[in-house]
Amino acid sequence: MSRRVNASNRSHPDDETCWVRSAQAGDRGAFAQLVERYWDRLYRWLYHLAQDRHTAEDLTQETFLKALAGLDSFRAGSNFRAWLFRIGHNNFVNRKRSERHGNQPLPEDVSGTVQVRAEVAAEQREWLERVESAVANLPLDFRAALLLRVYEGLSFREVARILRTTEETARWRVFKARQLLLQQLAPELLPPEARDGPATA
Description:
Blueprint: H1 7-11, H2 15-24, H3 28-50, H4 53-69, H5 80-99, H6 122-136, H7 140-151, H8 156-163, H9 167-185, H10 192-195
């Protein structure tokens, strides 16, 4: 589920502090600007965690509702994105805990999340699907840290704050995630004749 972001929102990042302050003063239009700026990013991250479109949509909506309700507790001028993503992560963790007693739905086919242009070659499309699948197979803690670091470009300090861990642990999780990805994807980098081992006489 995607929302179109106004181009002017991207070109004036300093407006965010003004929007937060206005929203805290009761301006719902200002909060709508924050929703427009972060909806797609938050939804994409939650989708990669939940691996289910409807769950990600519910969690995204719930996160913004909780952010609106708790906006007075946010200190304007600090990192709104990190604060918002922390709420989203807490919602996801709580959802997982509440579902443990029942059967979990199988994750959606990760290949469906790969959006490629028509002119992309079949080999490239297959490779992207393999990367998506490898990311989806990472342990949850590693996957969450990697996506925040790589997809969102957050610092390790911000990643640690969102995931409620230490900066050192955040670095270690990203390192391990990358290491596991290499272990899964390295065979795909070999030529076909090398994947099957040496030929027999």
